[in-house]
């Protein structure tokens, strides 16, 4: 059943905050057009001039794929257009373009976390038939099956994966070596290492995390909860877990890190965390892998040769890592007026083998077999994190829950609300949303 225009707009609007919560994917940094590979884009030339508008935020991990599409698929009667935009702008324009009968964009960058919501609303085109048609031509079978699954909903493919981003620990190896430290594998070790660096007197706030109170902080909470093996909502009973003992521990463990971070941590998004590492005011940071290569550029920081990488620590010994996985890819809006067959060939060309090679090491491409320790300094850390990250829940209501609990998590971490009161409020929010399903 087609969702009405108003209902769809309201439903999509609920995602705005939760989308921002996963903006940890590296928005802000940009990679130049030289990352665009020269690849075949062998579509049949349309009879009439056709403009393809692409919506994708600028980042060092996404730009190589966007640039490749623009460079190689603008020919004959086809013009591919992409305007620079940050993640927040993409969120707003995604909401707008999917809310009406006709949108402004023909290809949109999406990621696995929001695929279930958009797919359930009927806003995206299923890609299975086109995938089967062009699988051999573009060697799409080499794209990670797990990543294809994360861009699927109810057994149908709604996004063609380009790359994955996973939380990775970046640390100053020179500082660690000087103090005889090893990368922490638990939050207790993270506190111990942070205190030793702090006590050494050179770095006042050694730990940097993206805990922006109205966005990224909910990703941190989800990572801390998932590290204990508990999801937002129980898969079997469909009951929310926010008043569980693990939820309380997740918030308490997050608060236990505050003495080692800048007092303004709940105003810091990923670019701010990255800047702390650039300027040496922090010795450790946990960010999505799409930002790791930026740390190795001498044009960004004088410490570029001193960074090393590891998988994030677990909250408790024996648990899963403090992790989150985001698979980015291309989706086709249902309301585009451009031929889907043409659009699919454009996105398939942009994630081809040569395009994926050109994206390394800025991106961790969906063709994971191309990533090696030799061409990607953070490869081992990323692969170790991917192997142990908690699986995302593929339900349309999860983004709405995540978005609505975000300000509560921020208030608890800021000390404006007790952990007990916060978990109760989060539970009530989730139950209200689940009752509408």
Structure, explained:
This protein has about 425 residues and is of the alpha/beta class. The protein folds into 2 domains: about 200 residues, Periplasmic binding protein-like II (D-Maltodextrin-Binding Protein, domain 2); about 200 residues, Periplasmic binding protein-like II (D-Maltodextrin-Binding Protein, domain 2). Helices cover about 40% and strands about 10% of the residues. The chain is built from 18 helices and 11 strands. Helix 3 packs across helix 14, helix 3 crosses helix 15 and helix 17 runs antiparallel to helix 18.
CA radius of gyration: 21 Å
- CATH class label of the largest domain: Alpha Beta
Largest sheet: 9 strands, mixed
Reported CATH architecture of the largest domain: 3-Layer(aba) Sandwich
CATH topology of the largest domain: D-Maltodextrin-Binding Protein, domain 2
Low-confidence parts lasting 5 or more residues at pLDDT below 50?
1-32
Q: Number of domains in the coordinates?
A: 2
Q: Which structural class fits the helix and strand makeup?
A: alpha/beta
State the share of residues found in helices, binned by percent.
Answer: 40-55%
From the N-terminal CA to the C-terminal CA, the straight-line distance is: 16 Å
Give the name of the CATH superfamily of the largest domain.
Periplasmic binding protein-like II
Approximately what portion of the residues adopt beta-strand conformation?
A: 5-15%
Mean pLDDT: 90
Number of helices: 18
- What overall geometry do the principal axes of the alpha carbons give? globular
Order of helices and strands: HHEHEHEHHHEEEHHEHHHEHEEHHEHHH
According to DSSP, the number of beta strands is 11
């Amino acid at each position: 059943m087609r969702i009405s225009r108003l209902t769809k707009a309201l439903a999509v609007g609920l995602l705005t905050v939760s989308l921002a919560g996963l903006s940890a994917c590296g928005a802000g940094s940009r990679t130049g057009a030289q990352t665009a590979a020269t690849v075949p884009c062998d579509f049949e030339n349309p009879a009439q001039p056709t403009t393809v508008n692409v919506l994708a935020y600028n980042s060092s991990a996404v730009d190589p794929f966007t640039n490749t599409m623009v460079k190689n698929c603008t020919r004959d009667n086809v013009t591919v257009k992409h305007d620079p935009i940050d993640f927040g702008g993409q969120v707003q324009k995604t909401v707008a373009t999917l809310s009406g009968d006709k949108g402004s964009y023909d290809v949109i960058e999406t990621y696995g976390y929001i695929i279930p919501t958009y797919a359930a609303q009927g806003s995206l085109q299923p890609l299975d038939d086109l995938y089967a048609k062009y699988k051999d031509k573009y060697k799409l079978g080499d794209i990670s099956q797990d990543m294809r699954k994360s861009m699927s909903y109810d057994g149908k493919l709604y996004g063609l994966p380009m790359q994955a981003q996973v939380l990775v620990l970046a640390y100053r190896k020179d500082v660690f070596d000087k103090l005889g430290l090893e990368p922490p594998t638990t939050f207790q070790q993270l506190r111990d290492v942070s205190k030793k660096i702090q006590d050494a007197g050179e770095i006042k706030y050694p730990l940097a995390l993206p805990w922006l109170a109205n966005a990224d902080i909910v990703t941190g909470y989800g990572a801390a909860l998932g590290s204990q093996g508990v999801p937002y909502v129980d898969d079997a009973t469909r009951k929310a877990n926010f008043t569980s003992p693990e939820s309380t521990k997740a918030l308490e463990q997050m608060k236990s890190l505050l003495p080692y971070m800048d007092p303004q941590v709940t105003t810091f998004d990923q670019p701010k965390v990255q800047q702390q590492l650039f300027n040496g005011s922090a010795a450790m940071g946990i960010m999505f892998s799409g930002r790791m290569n930026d740390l190795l550029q001498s044009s960004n920081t004088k410490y570029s040769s001193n960074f090393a990488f590891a998988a994030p620590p677990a909250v408790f010994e024996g648990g899963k890592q403090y992790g989150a996985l985001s698979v980015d890819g291309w989706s086709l809006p249902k309301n585009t007026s451009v031929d889907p067959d043409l659009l699919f060939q454009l996105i398939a060309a942009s994630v081809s083998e040569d395009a994926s090679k050109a994206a390394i090491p800025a991106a961790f491409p969906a063709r994971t077999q191309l990533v090696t320790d030799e061409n990607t300094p953070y490869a081992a850390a990323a692969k170790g994190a991917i192997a142990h990250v908690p699986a995302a829940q593929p339900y349309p209501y999860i983004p709405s829950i995540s978005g609505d609990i975000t300000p509560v998590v921020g208030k608890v971490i800021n000390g404006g609300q007790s952990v007990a009161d916060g978990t109760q409020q989060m539970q009530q929010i989730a139950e209200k949303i689940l009752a509408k399903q």
